[in-house]
Amino acid sequence: MSSVKQISTKGSDVQKFFNASNDLLKDVKTVFVFNDINNKMNAFLVTNDDKTYTFGGNFFGVLGLGHKNPIDKLVLNKKLSQISLCDFRYSYQHCVGRTADGKVYSWGYNKFGVFGDNRRNDSLHKPKLNKYLKHEFVVDISTGFWHTLALTCEGRVYQFGDNTLCQMASGIDSKSISLKPKLLDAFDGERVVSISSGAFHSLALTESGHVYSWGSNDCGQLGIGKVPAIRKPTPVIVMGLKVAKISTGFDHNLLLSREGYIYTFGCNECGELGQTTKTTEQYLPIRLNHSERFVDIESDNSYPFSAALSESGDYYVWGMSRQHDIHELNTKPKHCKAYESFIELFLEEHRITQRAVHNFNGNKNLHKRLSVQLSHQINISADNVITK
């Protein structure tokens, strides 16, 4: 049994922990923070010696410890240690991790086949390697509510999980569950370079800048008009549009063009499209009316929230922001105070990192912001120690 200094949540004690030279976080290289469906913070911390620690609400067992009990102190997750974890994704009931050598692990709740391990059950699982993808080098992963996508270095897209709303696409029975990864070969011969999943739909971006969508379309999240759910990847067509980046929200989407314009479509009940229109459903992409051009976009597939970075280095947010449990609604882009990254923005506005944070110790602001979030969410006494 090893012990490390504890995290206290009392103001200066938190900051002292994050600043202390001998504390664990001084050795952390990657951090991933997310809120579960009970709005409880959860986190994974990977150290330079490749040990993975975790704590949080653990609803549905999303910490990968084999149970669903809340964890109020950092615990070593042996199954996620010494495997070179470099990326994480969280969904409604499970997490997916990707390693530096392109392997995929899943853990949490597997009722809908989201592990892709040819099994479906209600039990809570510790992290498990996806043996069906072990011969592929996976470079990106994306999770919807009950489905998972994996993108390989050669541009192949695999999918597994629930298909009730056509999330699986490409000829799979609309009511079935895909228990093993299935290759999605439906992009007109184009190489896919990016994937992004909403709750019940998905997008893929090709090397030539084309976007494909499939899945649920109840509020226009496919961007192809007012049609039923689609089980085959279908081109999202805007005349002359070449896309540089895609980002999905719960049931809305952002597209960033190579010229720096943002297009949005899907649900707009909380202003997440950033449009002046009062419609709650947008079935075709529409360009964001803004004087600036943009270089990056980001959204959250568990919440109606959108963010963008302009060419001038300014951050903008719209939709529903969740600041210290106060829900603030912005129906058009709102200029934010200065941030150094989307990670800082999401920690402040949304209490999550959204993506895995690398070079964590190279950014003092991230230390500070994360310590504040810990003080709001985690109840760890000054006498508790990190064990096993």
Helix/sheet category: mainly beta
Instruction: Tell me the number of helical segments per DSSP (H or I, 4 or more residues long).
Output: 3
Query: Can you say what the CATH homologous superfamily is?
Result: Regulator of chromosome condensation 1/beta-lactamase-inhibitor protein II
Element-level helix/strand string: HEEEEEEEEEEEEEEEEEEEEEEEEHEH
CATH architecture: 7 Propeller
- CATH-defined fold name: Methylamine Dehydrogenase, Chain H
Number of domains: 1
Cα(first) to Cα(last) distance is 5 Å
Radius of gyration: 20 Å
Low-confidence stretches: 1-22, 375-388
| Average pLDDT figure | 81
Please describe the biggest sheet, giving its number of strands, its sense, and whether it closes into a barrel: 5 strands, antiparallel
